[in-house]
Specification:
By secondary structure, the chain is mainly alpha-helical. It has six helices and two strands, in the order αααββααα. α1 crosses α2. The longest helix has 23 residues.
């Protein structure tokens, strides 16, 4: 268990070791706290919060790959991107657009009401952030640590913030 704790600690600490990652991670922590302080029911405000967080994370993961060349045209450099990174990034961006659009339109697409009930999604965005930003590689032990600590962190946030949570 201590091995997974050190792996989890590495995932949480890595963004704060590099100035380039702090800009991307701090809004996700803010979003996590904001989501935890709002209602636990799916609504359009939580869909807006989730959409913003997802789009922010996806944009931060894509940003380093856009290079401006001599002629001023930005181009996407995908040589270093792994297929899993691309899949996760574009899935997060797609879910972000759906959540944001649902919040703005005040209407959820059929079978996607859960998009407004994703208070804890920022936990996953925070934990995979250094992996998706290519500061740490994807490994099974990192994935296991993320899953293993998901419930304890959720319980800590849920019950720890209960006294300040809106009714």
């Amino acid at each position: 268990m201590s091995h997974y704790w050190s792996t989890f600690s590495e995932l949480i600490a890595t963004p704060f070791l590099y100035a380039a990652l702090i800009w991307g991670i701090v809004p996700l922590y803010f979003g996590l706290l904001l989501n935890e302080l709002t209602s636990d029911k799916a609504n359009f405000r939580t869909a807006l919060q989730t959409g913003f967080s997802f789009l922010w994370a996806g944009a931060q993961w894509l940003w380093p790959y856009f290079k401006v060349h001599k002629f001023g045209e930005p181009q996407l450099e995908i040589g270093a991107m792994l297929p899993i990174n691309l899949l996760v990034t574009f899935l997060v961006i797609a879910l972000g657009f759906v959540a944001l659009a649902s919040g703005v339109r005040k209407k959820f697409p059929k079978h996607l009401r859960f998009i407004g009930h994703t208070r804890f999604a920022n936990y996953f965005m925070i934990t995979i952030f250094p992996i998706q930003a290519h500061y740490l590689p994807w490994t099974w032990e990192r994935l296991a640590a993320i899953v293993l600590f998901a419930v304890p962190i959720w319980l800590l946030l849920h019950f720890g913030l209960m006294p300040v949570r809106g009714k």
